[in-house]
Amino acid sequence: MTVAVYEMAMSAPVSARGSAANCSAAKRAATLQSKTPFHATIAVTPTTPGAFPIEHDEEIWVGNKIYTSLGDNRWISAPLTQNPMGGFTGPISGFKDCRSVPSASIRGEMATGYDVKMESGRRVKIWISPKSGLPMRDVVDQDILLATIEFDYANVRAPATH
Question: Which long-range contacts (CB under 8 A, 24 or more apart) does 78-82 make?
Answer without folding.
Answer: 78/3
